[in-house]
Amino acid sequence: MSGLTRDHVTRLRDDLEASFREDLEEAVIDATRWPDLIERASRSSGSVGALLLRTDRTGLDALCTQSIAEPARRYFDEGWHRDDHRLRGLPTLRTRGITVDLDFTSPDEIARLPYYQDLLGSCGLRWFAGVGFAVKGRLWCLSLQRTVAQGPFEAHEQERLATLSPLLRRAGLLTMMVEKARLAGLNQAFDVIDRAALVLDSEGRALCWNTAFEALLGPDLKLTGGRLVAEDPEAARQLEALTRPCGRAPISAVVVARRDAQPIAIHVVPLVGQSRGLFAGGRTLLLCRVAGATPVPAATILQTAYRLTPAEARLTQALSGGDSLAEAASRFAVTAATARSQLKAIFAKTGATRQADLVRLVAGLAR
């Protein structure tokens, strides 16, 4: 196959376990190092390439070395993942931590099965060793690939590779914890600028969301069984499309009509590359805003910019968001006189003389 290098030494390197442990520590600290990790694992194991993927998925979260990028693309694009002969090795993978072709396939089957002849054979590949590890009940596999000339993984090689399974499991769990903390921090950052945000996994389920997003939920837009659903049929169809297996989000925006309020505009941002959580599962970021609403800066921004008290900043937010003074007073359970007194102080600190001036002034801080 074009692009395959064939100068690998077909034996395990003596420092395989030690170097792998060091690489895993780096990958936990910086999840973007996982592609480098599987590249080095491939070389150290005398393999021509490697693929890291969850065994119960369609490959949305798969990583592969550049040397087998084309076979990996065909594997998913041509539907081989739906009828992968090597899935027969899953019971062995779970019990031993490793499986190889000859655990579940005879030489006669290798010579005639389309999986080996049409897919692997056309790419110059033949043998594999799958190192399995579980992360929160989900089984992952580091699939190491060899060519016909390199030969199968011998019994003594399998024993050493199996020792990598607990190391991968620990690293996967730690990476997931780091990624979940990062996703939570992402939502908190949007809280600071008062922007509603929600993160979906690659199956369209809600992973985390901030308080601003929660405030938008109601009869027209709700979370049901971990999925975001809308009463508006067209919006419901578009939100459902976010749950379908695909490389990128199929749509860029959704508008959710509401019966008694302004529509909600949802901007769909695929999390790719360094922003994607491999083990935490973050796949899509949804940023929401009420259509036509004036953007309102966070209370902390108002306090810092104009030296407002927390109560004054809260009132400024409400007025900038479209509330009347009476509505704001009722919402915050203060008297009309107290609200007027706070507004007078706000005018003095911001230099505004009318509520309309105040709205225009603070809107600039939200851009």
Structure overview:
Helix content is 43%, strand content 19%. The protein has 367 residues and is α+β, with helices and mostly antiparallel strands. It folds into three domains: 16-172, Transcription factor LuxR-like, autoinducer-binding domain (Beta-Lactamase, 2-Layer Sandwich), CATH 3.30.450.80; 193-290, PAS domain (Beta-Lactamase, 2-Layer Sandwich), CATH 3.30.450; 299-366, Arc Repressor Mutant, subunit A. The protein has a five-stranded antiparallel beta sheet with strand order 2-1-5-4-3, with helices on both faces. Strands 7-6-12-11-10 form a five-stranded antiparallel beta sheet. The radius of gyration is 27 Å and the shape is elongated. The relative contact order is 0.09.
Q: How would you concisely characterize the structure shown here?
A:
The protein is α+β, with helices and mostly antiparallel strands and 367 residues long. 43% of the residues lie in helices and 19% in strands. The chain is elongated and about 90 Å long.
Q: Would you give the CATH topology of the largest domain?
A: Beta-Lactamase
What's the name of the CATH homologous superfamily of the largest domain?
Transcription factor LuxR-like, autoinducer-binding domain
Distance between the termini: 52 Å
Shape: elongated
Spatial order of the strands in the main sheet?
2-1-5-4-3
Order of helices and strands: HHEEHHEHHEEHHEEHEEHEEEHHHHH
User: How many structural units, i.e. domains?
Assistant: 3
Alpha-carbon Rg, integer: 27 Å
Runs in which pLDDT lies below 50 for 5 or more consecutive residues are 1-10
Report the sheet with the most strands, covering strand number, pairing sense and barrel closure.
Answer: 5 strands, antiparallel
Relative helix content: 40-55%
> Structural class from helices and strands?
alpha+beta
Average residue pLDDT: 84
